[in-house]
Amino acid sequence: MKTDDGLLMNIVLGIVGALVLNWLLVLIVGATLGGWIGQLIVAAAGACLLIFVVRLVRRKT
After folding, report:
1. Residues 42, 10 contacting (CB under 8 angstroms)
2. Where do the TM regions start and end (predicted)?
3. pTM for this structure?
4. Residue-by-residue pLDDT tens, the chain, 61 positions
C-alpha cells in the first residue's frame, strides 16, 4: 500500500482509534473486553478501522 501518510500520522491515528473504539464499546455494551489481551484486540481493531476510514476519505478528495 503506497500512501503519503507518515509514520507519526499512523501512530496518532492508531492511538486515537484505539481510544475511540474502547469508548464506543463502553457506551454500547457497558464494558470492554477483559484483560490485556482483550484490550490489545480492541486497540488493534480501532486503530485499523480509523486508519482505513481516513485513507478512504483522503482518496476521495
Report:
1. no
2. 7-30, 36-57
3. 0.73
4. 556 667 888 888 888 988 888 888 888 888 777 788 888 888 888 888 888 888 888 877 6
